[in-house]
Predict the structure of Aliphatic sulfonate ABC transporter substrate-binding protein.
Amino acid sequence: MKKFLGLFIISTFLILGACGGGNSAASGSSESETVTIGYFPNLNHAPAMVAKQKAMYEDHLGENVNVEYQTFPDGATFMKALAAGEIHGGLVGPGPAMNSFISGVDAQIIGASSTGGTVIVSRDGSDIESWEDVEGSTFISPRVGCTHNVQFETYMKERGVTSERTGGSMVHVTGEPARYQSMFENGDVDVATAPEPWASVMEAEVDANVVIPTSDVSFGETLPAAVFVTSDDMIENNSEQVQTLIDAHKEAVAYINDNPDEAIDITIEGIADITDQQLEKSVMESAWERTNFTYEVDADVIQEFGNSSYDLQFLKEKPDFEGFVNKTFIQ
C-alpha cells in the first residue's frame, strides 16, 4: 500500500515539511562506526540536546561508536537526509515523517519526544484577539502543510474559516520560527503558528497575543510535537542498535522530567549554538509549561492527524498509516 501510494503522491514530498537508507553502523563490527543523530533547534527537540550534552548516546552505543549530530531547518530536509543514509535517526515533526511514509520512503516512528508546544499568536496592533478575528488575515507557518500549519487550519476549518488554498480568505506565507519576531515587528504577518519557545519569545519581546493556546489548538495535547524516526533498514538489519538509540532517548526524556531547571539551561544553550539567539530563562520557563516531554506515541492520533491533512488538501489520497508506528522499542 505504501509503495502504491508513492507512485502518485510523490509530488507531496515537500508539502508536509515542518512547522537514512544506507547504514554505516553494521552490527557486530569491531571497527569504529559512526552514528549520526538529527534534530532541530526547537524546544520540542530538547531530548536530543540533553542527550548530546550528557553524552547519553555515546554511553549507550559504546566506545566503538562515534556519535555525530546534525541539525536541520525543516522536516523535509531531515527526511531527505534519512532516506539518503546521511543520518541514522533522530527527531522530526510528525508531518514530514508521515509525508515520507506515504510517498514510499522507508521510515518508521519508534517513539515520541514531546506533545504540546504549538501556540497561535497574533501581532500586537492587528486587532486579532480570538479566532473570530482571524478571517482575512495573513498567517505564517514554518512550511506549507507542516505540523503547526495543519493544527491551525484544522482548528479554523472546524469553525468555518479556511485559507485561500481551499477557497477561503486567510493568506498563508512560510518562514522559519526564529524570524517570526522580526516579521511581526515589520507588520509582514498578522498571525503565527508558533512552536515553542518562539511563541513565548514573541509574547515577551513584541507583546504578541495568544489567540489559540496549546490546550485548545487541534491535536494540541495529544499529537507528538516531535517523533523519533529511523529507517526500515536500521530496524531490519540493526535492531539492537535501534534499541540502544531509543534507550538513550528514553533516558534523556526521564532526565528532563526529573531535572527541568537544568534541562532548560541545556536547551537554551543548544538553541543558541545553532541559531545565535540567546533566550531568556523566564521565556523558556513559560514555554516549558506548555510542553509535555514523553516518549510514548499513540498510533491513532497519528492517523487522525493524517486524515485531517487529507481533508485540508495537503494530501491527494487519504493515508493509511498501518505499520508506520512501531512501539516495539519503547516497551
Q: What stands out?
A: Confidence is low (pLDDT under 50) at residues 1-18, 20-29. The domain at 2-116+224-330 is CATH 3.40.190.10 (D-Maltodextrin-Binding Protein; domain 2). The longest strand covers residues 107-116. DSSP finds 13 helices and eleven strands in the chain.
